[in-house]
Amino acid sequence: MSDTLITAYSAALNAMDRTGPRTLHPLAAMLGDDSLADGTALLAHLRAAGPEDALRQQFAHALAGWDQVATDAAWAAGTASNTAERRNAVIEALTLDPATQDLFADRFPYAAAATPIVIADDWEEWRTQQRRHDRDFYWTHYRKFLLDKGWDPDAVAGLDLATEEVVRRLSDPTRVKAYQAKGLVVGYVQSGKTANFTGVIAKAVDAGYRLVIVLTGTTNMLRAQTQRRLDMELLGRENLELEISPHDTKGHEYQDDPDWDADRFIRHGGRPSDAGYPDVRRLSTHAWDYRRLRTGFSALEYQRHDRTKRLFEPVNLFTSDARLVVAKKNKTVLQDLVADLGRISDRLGEVPVLIIDDESDQASVNTTSPKKWKDDSRERTAINRLIGQLLTMMPRAQYVGYTATPYANVFVDPADVEDIFPRDFLISLPRPVGYMGAEDFHDFDTDIPLDQRSYAESQERRHVCLLSEEPQDDELRTALDMYVLTGAVKLHRQRLGHASYRHHTMLVHEAMGRESHREAAAAINRMWETSDYHSPAGLRRLRHVYENDILPVSQTTAPDLPTPANFDDLRPDIGAAISRISPPDRDAGPVIVVNSDPDLERQQESLDFDRRSIWRILVGGNKLARGFTVEGLTVTYYRRATSQVDTLMQMGRWFGFRPKYRDLVRIYTTKELHSMFAAACRDEEFLRAELRRYAQPVDGVPQITPKQIPPLIAQHRPDLRPTGRNKMWNARLVERSSPGEPMEPVAYPYPDTAPNLTMANNELWEPVLAAADQVVKFKTVRITRVNETSVTQAAGTDYDARIATLGHPQMLRILDKLSWNGDDTFKPELAWLRSLRADQLNRWVVIFPFQSSGKSTAQKILGHGPFSIFQRAWTSSKGSLRAVSESRHRNAANRIAGLSTPVPDPTADGLHGPATGALIMYPAVRDKDEFDGGPVPDNRITMAFHLVTPMSTMPLNGKLIKWQTRNSSDPTAVVVDVPQ
Q1: How far are the Cα atoms of 81, 129, 701 from residue 72, in angstroms, in the given order?
Q2: Residues with Cβ < 8 Å from 777, sequence gap 6 or more?
Q3: Are the beta carbons of 888 and 782 closer than 8 angstroms?
Q4: What is the C-alpha end-to-end distance of the chain, expressed in Å?
């Protein structure tokens, strides 16, 4: 009965893959036998089935897919994707009895998965459900591969949805008139972008794309890693075996690969062409990048079933094989590819081509200064010029860039037809479940001192260890001890059967130069040799780190995983970890240096996460800073600074998925670098929030197209640019409205070096200081983390504050004259504030909070007050404050502005009125102790503020931005202005 049941219900679900959900039990009975008609057999089977049961997994995947699919089919009853209403529509279409409905709700709970954010220009819809299902060979197999690999069905369904958003915006490969679409997919660093573009390639090949070119980063390591991933998860055993000689079945590149021997490469159940689908032939291999086809040029020839018709016509397209090139972004490699394609240029116009540009903000963007351009001609960097040649010579080529840091891409001139501006679509992928990103290493919106935060509520206490600004040997040794201990905990858990850890790595990233890497490697090897891990002194050191860091963190955040309560119980695993980390060659040491030094190339070849189990300490720079996945990374020692957000975020190799060892992840870095990552994280989340906001159409029309993305780029620190200056010449934001959103500029003049500017700013605020003669009490709030989400709660206490009220014109006169440490600081917001009518904003309530310790710490400012003086840290460059406001004060400001918050505040509510904004003032100084307890001079106080506007400031037409951008397509009007 069980085999019949599984076969029948599996076939029923397969049939519904094309039709959508239908009455379940009668269909299964028709495909099996009458005993299945009432559903009791399925109910019994699923009640007894464990999570690994194949039919249970198939039901989970089918339900997740129907939850997420965008469709106007009758069964969906007009419900939106990812809603409870959609799940109810699915259950109703399946016609399930109440008992089975209850079981489904328990075993297959509805998940309101995050969906991609899509900003797109008009396009021609061609991906009908019928076309999707008629040809879905590679996608179906890839989807099954991921499920068999252990992916959550909801995650696979989300991947299906996200990849479909990309593929449907490419040109129809059978389209008679050629069209090139250019788009950009934005993910998170180390978040699974490769899985997304692998799915896009699978669907594209199914749809008819016959040449796929994947441009990886600039290193052989990343290119080889990408090639193997596609070989294993997409091409599969049957396509690869086409290259194996029948006389030498072992003579191929994966003959010593453990995954090949273990049959983990995807299988298609036979050669694809035997089933009427395209074979995929490689023009690059795991070992070799693309090379000139001096012989065997037929590899680029496409067979046409009907020679009287063109290749892109269905009769030829669907009977021809596909080609795959995985090439690094290297001038010589791409020149060879362009040269070979040029030899068949007369036929390239018929070939549907997909170009995937991984890390598309690296090397691909033209960074040649316009000052070097000749008349009527652009000078281009080599890689940009070669990509442009590929797009020019292949009119049916579709370009899709992938990156986690899109800043350089969106500043490209949108009118440059040879460049890679994402003119057609920009898709922001949702944060994946189980992902550790920048925000998981910071405590935003909390004012509790770090040492007073609990491990349960503090990301920083769990994962971040702050270093001195200057390197100290004892700090590096502590990081090394942490690496040994976390390896031991992994082995302990593995020994008890709770997880399996193939790799365990530590990353040391301090500087760029090769010599610095050699010195760091030598120092770590010496430290390893003198670590004395088996001596009483070494064990005392390990015990201290374990009992004061690892144990309390793991017991609090990973109680379901075994972590020995007694350090002595871990000692056997410590010995085993040391043995794994120590190589057989005692002279080599546990360190692998990863850089471009040819003398170290042989050592780097051992860094093969696919063929070997790697338990090593990696020292490197750029070669490890972008794209390349460092498997098993648990401990990072990071000191390298940069002045660009995209570079900084790409260095975050500690971002990614850490199954069964998230609690063990540690990063050792300086306070300044940690602050820089916090600012970069805020820039990143600002972009995503703005994309989400502007993706909503107004009156059925998109608020913006991809050409208008540059205004959505924020810069939270003036010394940390979004990207290189040579990539930012095409756009400038002139106005941004933020109804109901906070504004908190930080780039004030530094008082120690610009006391006159500081004093001039303070004098502008004197009328407000003088008017703040009323003291009131507001409710204090606190921000806590509940299920990884920030929640505002009442703290049960009050705080005193002085308040002043002034009109909007008076406030504008102050804001207009303030001096800033940055030419564009606060200008777009100020331009918007100036444009508001009196019925939108006519009144401001200014709050001067007192410190929680009371008014005794306050002093007069410019003869008024007293007011509390707050201590605020500056960036190392002294270009800006690191932060201004405190979350405990923002609740009152929000309620004064009429915004809804979880914590009522009668005083704040009483101050609210029509068209009223709120501003919190923080008279700030870098170090109060510098003044020996006496008053701070007026010219050393920075009057910093946080303001929020009411929702009445929303533009009547719903549009929220006004921007300017240089667009070379209109030379008579260099500035394009989009009116409000």
Answers
A1: 11, 10, 20
A2: 798, 799, 800, 801, 907
A3: yes
A4: 68
- How far is it, in rounded angstroms, from Cα 68 to Cα 86? 9
Of 537, 560, 563, 538, nearest to 549 (Cα)? 563
The Cα–Cα gap between 144 and 93 comes to 24
Phi and psi at residue 283, to the nearest 5°: -110, 10
Tell me the two tokens of residue 431: 């944060």
Inter-CA distances, 51 with 2, 107, 108, Å: 17, 9, 11
Same domain flag for 134 and 65: no
Q: Are 940 and 871 in contact (CB under 8 A)?
A: no
The number of distinct structural domains making up the chain is: 4
Residue 827 within any structural domain of the chain: yes
Q: Which residues, in sequence order, are CB contacts of 971 under 8 Å at separation 6+?
A: none
Residue 720 domain-assigned (yes or no) = no
Structure tokens at 606: 């051992």
E strand or H helix that includes residue 784? strand 774-786
**What is the rounded CA–CA span in Å between residue 216 and residue 334?**
12
- In this structure, the answer to whether residues 536 and 670 fall within a common structural domain is yes
Query: DSSP string of 890-901?
Result: HHHHHHHTT---
Among 614, 591, 607, 594, which Cα is nearest to 529's?
A: 591
Domain identity same for 108 and 140: no
Sign of CA dihedral 644, 646, 651, 653: positive
Q: Which residue has the tokens 């009411």?
A: 950
Residue 281 and residue 270 in one domain:
yes
Check residue 942 and give its pLDDT: 97
Residues 6+ away with beta carbon under 8 Å from 466: 668, 669, 670, 671, 674
For the chain, what's the residue count? 980
The Cα–Cα gap between 255 and 263 comes to: 12
Q: Is residue 88 part of a domain?
A: yes
Q: Which of 965, 757, 748, 765 is nearest to 862 (CA)?
A: 765
Q: How far is CA 214 from CA 27, 387, 903, in A?
A: 43, 12, 52
> Do 102 and 151 have their domain in common?
no
Q: Nearest Cα to 124, choosing from 182, 177, 74, 171?
A: 171
Q: Which residues pair with 400 in a beta bridge?
A: 183, 356
Contact assessment for residue 943 and residue 923, using Cβ atoms and an 8 Å cutoff: yes
Pair 200, 292 in one domain: yes
Domain contains 780: yes
Mean pLDDT of 740-756: 92
Do 212 and 227 reside in the same domain of the chain? Answer: yes
Predicted pLDDT of residue 687: 78
The span from the CA of 385 to the CA of 365, in Å, is 9
**pLDDT tens digits, one per residue of 250-293:** 667 888 888 998 999 999 999 999 999 999 999 999 888 898 77
Residues 310 and 313: their CA atoms lie apart, in Å, by 6
| Backbone φ and ψ of 920, nearest 5° | -105, 125
Question: DSSP strand E in 543-643: where?
Answer: 591-594, 615-620, 633-638
Look at residues 656, 679, 702 and tell me which one is the last residue of a structural domain. 679
**Separation between Cα atoms, residue 859 and residue 940, nearest integer Å:** 13
Strands 916-925 and 656-657 turn out to be unpaired
* 99 and 122 within one domain: no
Q: Evaluate if residue 48 carries a pLDDT over 70.
A: yes
CA 146 – CA 152 distance, rounded (Å): 9
Domain range enclosing 9: 1-112
Is the confidence at residue 414, as pLDDT, over 80? no
pLDDT digits (tens, 9 = 90+) for 655-711: 888 999 999 999 999 988 888 888 788 777 777 877 777 777 766 666 677 766 655
Tokens 């915004």 -> residue: 899
